[in-house]
Design brief:
The N and C termini lie far apart (about 65 Å). The chain is α+β, with helices and mostly antiparallel strands and about 150 residues long. The protein has 4 helices and 6 strands, in the order H-H-H-E-E-H-E-E-E-E. The longest helix has 25 residues.
Length: about 150
């Protein structure tokens, strides 16, 4: 009986230790990578469709986008509304893309992603090209889904 209780205690301790051990950084990056890649690869098609909701869907409910002009958009709804406002009938996405230059796990755990992007749009018959760098901070929500917490477009 004592041996049985000792074995049960060892199993219990092993399970508690395994449950409390911090995740391995490579595992967290591997878990987040599909979401990050989807956000980046879905951006151009969403721009072509004028689909502000799809673009904003990667943001946390309380996520913040700092636009290149310095304006802070707070919340997923504000990000969506801003994109929708810019995608008027006179708006046509000509081309562009996102190039990720790096990604690293930070305490929190958070993921910092950085890179550069360019966009070419036509508005009211005029073509406008814009390019710059970005820094995106990703965090996991309570359900374990990775979302954009902060996005700084430079």
């Amino acid at each position: 009986m004592l041996r049985f209780l000792s074995i049960c205690a060892c199993i219990f301790i092993a399970r508690v230790a395994a449950a409390e051990s911090p995740p391995i950084p490579e595992d967290l990056l591997a878990q987040a990578r599909p979401t990050i890649e989807a956000a980046n690869s879905d951006w151009v098609p969403a721009m072509k469709r004028r689909d502000a909701k799809a673009i904003a869907s990667f943001y946390a409910e309380d996520g913040v986008l700092i636009a290149p002009d310095g304006k802070a958009l707070q919340g997923r709804d504000a990000v969506e509304a801003s994109y929708a406002k810019g995608m008027t009938a006179s708006f046509r996405f000509v081309g562009g893309g996102i190039v990720q230059d790096g990604v690293v796990l930070a305490p929190g755990p958070l993921i910092y992603e950085w890179g550069h992007a360019g966009i070419e749009i036509e508005r009211d018959g005029k073509t406008v090209h814009s390019a710059g760098n970005y820094l995106t901070v990703w965090k996991r929500n309570a359900a374990g889904k990775w979302e954009i917490s902060r996005n700084l477009a430079l």
